Amino acid sequence: MDFAALKEECLACRRCGLCETRRHVVFGQGVETAEVMFVGEGPGANEDEQGLPFVGRSGQLLDRYLEAIDLDRNKNIFIANIVKCRPPENRDPTPEESAACLPWLRAQFVLLRPRIVVCLGRIAAQQLISRDFSVTKDHGKFFDKQGTLFMATLHPAALLRNPGSKPSAFGDFVALRDKINEVCDHTYPK
């Protein structure tokens, strides 16, 4: 299956109750040859409205951090979420909703085969790195999982609520840039 076919199937998904309240499925956005994949927890109101990930205030902050290390969703990365539909009132996805949606993320992962996965926030990190992952303690550290490096950083929405955490989160992006230079072949022009 290719990306276009996967997206077409995903946009028609009815695997959980979130399909009843969504406006749009937020499949993801980016380059299909990306070596770096960012994964958040789920769409918010702006994302549900536009059908694109990280387009609200937190997405604008994320884009500034990405730009600072020469990453861009239209140029060299892919951004997705654990769940593809907005949980009502932006609540955390339930375990059942996450389980119903994870096959979509796994299929994206298989097609992309990223060298690095960056988890944006606690929910994504606990789903993809470790159930007991503490994003406040372990952000910015890389974990090798069967040849793919995983790293978590603070969710951009958390940074908007706690601006004092922005410098340490930016440090994570600097570490990411260094790791990309070390392990990726074409994310940055050589």
Pairing-aware structural class of the strands and helices? alpha/beta
Top CATH class = Alpha Beta
pLDDT < 50 stretches: none
User: What letter string, H or E per element, gives the SSE order?
Assistant: HEEHHEHEHHEEHH
> Can you tell me the CATH topology?
Uracil-DNA Glycosylase, subunit E
Mean pLDDT: 96
| First and last CA, distance | 31 Å
CATH superfamily: Uracil-DNA glycosylase-like domain
Strand order of the largest sheet: 1-3-2-4-6-5
Strand fraction = 5-15%
Total beta-strand segments: 6
Please bin the fraction of helical residues: 40-55%
Rounded to the nearest angstrom, the radius of gyration is 15 Å
**CATH architecture assignment name:** 3-Layer(aba) Sandwich
Structural domain tally: 1
Number of helices: 8
Main sheet summary:
6 strands, mixed
Q: What spatial form do the alpha-carbon principal axes imply?
A: globular
Model description:
There is one protein chain. With 190 residues, the chain is an alpha/beta fold. The protein has a six-stranded mixed β-sheet, with helices on both faces. The chain has one domain: Uracil-DNA glycosylase-like domain (Uracil-DNA Glycosylase, subunit E, 3-Layer(aba) Sandwich). The longest helix is centred in the middle third of the chain and has 18 residues. It is globular. A hairpin with a 2-residue loop joins strand 5 and strand 6. Helices cover 42% and strands 14% of the residues.
